[in-house]
Design brief:
Shape: elongated
Low-confidence stretches: none
Order of helices and strands: EEEHEHEHEHEEEEEEHEHEHEHEH
Radius of gyration: 21 Å
Helix content: 25-40%
Number of domains: 2
Strand order of the largest sheet: 9-8-7-10-6-1-4-5-11
Number of helices: 9
Mean pLDDT: 95
Distance between the termini: 46 Å
Structural class: alpha/beta
Number of strands: 16
CATH superfamily of the largest domain: HUPs
Bound molecules: flavin-adenine dinucleotide
């Protein structure tokens, strides 16, 4: 059954952010013939509307007021509420980003409805929304349905596929009000120093664990990531490896580290403790390399190789290089 869906769009470097295209893909599937709308806020908003139409939006609710360029939740909340009123959307999808973490609960409170945070799956079941998220440190999945409207859902990046871009698609444009006064003053901005591809953004993550035996083990992990391509693969680590000082804590994957959902997650000499899986269970494909055939990681892996990583990785690296 069709339902109208509103996506809260985000812009990056003046363009539609990749996660917004993913949410629009999810929205077209959930709408099932209903109308898909998107909010676009900030000076680049009008320019991004064409990309949003190509990515699946039927309607863009736009304000090009530069007052929206920085995310201030009170200003964005008013704009999104105006879009909810204008579109009568029964579902609001927001990225599980800095914006979504703040805006999702606020919007749900203001509309006297509920929010499901950090979801990995959204479906239309007989006209009702079902949202699924990971629970108990990745050991279970919890599925939510909503008794109130709109259903507000924040969705993890890379968990949804964008649609094939609809070249030349057009749609309706609706003006949203300019940004009002804000109670938040941004006094400064400091960019985090980070080099290369970030593990949260990488389509491939190769992670190493305590079973590497020594910090030198990460050299071969880095070689494997480099064989996939420095623009495609980043290196992660288990907490045990980080706690031993073998790899920087910034690369830790898991409950108390980063949450990643790449297309491919390669876990090398990692046992697959629930706290580690909490950070990678949203990966599309998990490949595990472990010498213990009973290791927990094999329960989550689509492909598993039982053996010593020292013997397996050089072979794997040569095989990947041979593909070029
Ligand atoms: C509150 C809390 C939060 C936590 N948060 C996190 C978190 O964010 N991230 C995280 O990762 N952990 C976290 N942990 C720790 C977690 O419980 C595990 O202790 C940790 O994930 C284990 O890391 P590991 O798999 O690298 O090491 P181990 O459990 O020691 O596993 C090593 C694996 O390597 C295999 N192995 C050994 N030698 C080889 C070889 N030569 N070739 C192939 N395989 C080999 C072994 O068979 C074993 O399966 C947390 C724990 C708590 C209590």
């Amino acid at each position: 059954m069709a339902q109208d869906v509103l996506v809260v769009g985000e812009l990056a470097d003046g363009k539609l952010s990749p996660v917004t295209a993913e949410l629009l893909g999810a929205a077209t599937r959930v709408a099932d013939g209903g109308k898909v709308s998107v909010t676009l806020l900030g000076s680049a908003a009008a320019g991004a509307a064409a990309d949003a139409f190509a990515a699946g939006a039927d309607r863009a609710c736009v304000s090009s007021d530069s007052g929206y360029d920085d995310f201030r939740s009170d200003q964005w909340l008013s704009a999104v509420e105006a879009a909810v009123d204008q579109t009568s959307a029964g579902v609001v999808l927001i990225a599980q980003s800095g914006v979504g973490r703040d805006l999702g609960p606020r919007l749900a409170f203001r509309r006297n409805t509920a929010v499901a945070m950090d979801c990995l799956r959204v479906e239309n079941v007989d006209g009702s929304l079902r949202a699924t998220r990971s629970a108990y440190g990745g050991n279970a999945h919890a599925t939510y349905s909503f008794a109130t409207s709109p259903a507000v859902v924040t969705v993890r990046a890379k968990s949804q596929d964008p649609i094939e871009p609809r070249a030349g698609a057009s749609g309706e444009t609706v003006e949203l009000p300019a940004a009002g006064a804000s109670r938040t003053e941004i006094t400064g901005r400091e960019a985090a120093v980070s080099e290369g591809l970030q593990i949260q953004d990488a389509p491939i993550v190769v992670s190493g664990g305590r079973g590497l035996g020594a910090p030198e083990g990460f050299q071969v992990i880095e070689e494997l990531a480099a064989a996939f391509g420095s623009d495609k693969a980043a290196v992660g680590a288990s907490r045990a490896a980080c706690d031993l000082g073998w790899y920087p804590p910034s690369q830790q994957v898991g409950l108390t580290g980063k949450i990643v959902s790449p297309d491919l997650y390669v876990a090398v000499a990692i046992s697959g403790a629930s706290q580690h899986m909490a950070g990678c269970s949203g990966s599309k494909t998990i490949v595990a390399i472990n010498r213990d055939p009973e290791a927990n990681i094999f329960k989550s892996a689509r492909f598993g190789i039982v053996g010593d990583y020292k013997a397996i990785l050089p072979e794997l690296i040569s095989a990947i290089k041979a593909l070029d």
